[in-house]
Amino acid sequence: MRSLVKMAGLVVLVSAQIAAGDLAPDMQAKFVKLLASSAGSAGKISCTSPALLAELGKLGVANDASASVAWASSEAEVKALKAAGKLVICGKLDWLPSGGSIAVVEEGGKPQIYLHMGNIAASKAVVSDTVLRIGKRL
Fold it and tell me: What is the pLDDT of residues 28-73, one digit of tens each?
């Protein structure tokens, strides 16, 4: 969100960032499973996060490096996974411009889903209409 602010006779463009936090691994895993399933990758995801993998395992989701959907734990991983053509799910809103397709974050105590439509299209994944309706587009 951008706004113009007049300060000392100057007009300044201010870019406001949305404050978002991390979800707990168990909650994150539920959303990742749902999003992976909605993109046709039911039961498997590429993930290197031990905490998230443990929670995904409890939900019946296996780690598979060849999966078309991936969880990114760092901005560098976001870039690498996007370059590999994967639909990249991450937990930081700031990583969407770097190649993240979907960010699942906590805002005001509630989980929120943000979508980067360009990165979703670049992954060639087909995301369900339900996710497209409930997610906030950037």
Answer: 999 999 999 999 988 999 999 999 999 999 999 999 999 999 999 9
Strand partners, 62: 44
Considering the chain, what is the average pLDDT of its residues? 86
Q: Of all residues in the chain, what percent carry a pLDDT higher than 90?
A: 78
φ, ψ at 93 (rounded to 5°): -60, -35
Is residue 105 within 8 A of residue 135, CB to CB? The reply is: no
Both structure tokens of 90 = 């991450």
> How do the domains of the chain map onto residue ranges?
19-137
Q: Which CATH number fits domain 19-137: 3.30.1330.30, 3.30.70.3420, 3.40.50.720, 3.40.50.2300?
A: 3.40.50.2300
CB atoms within 10 A of CB 3: 9
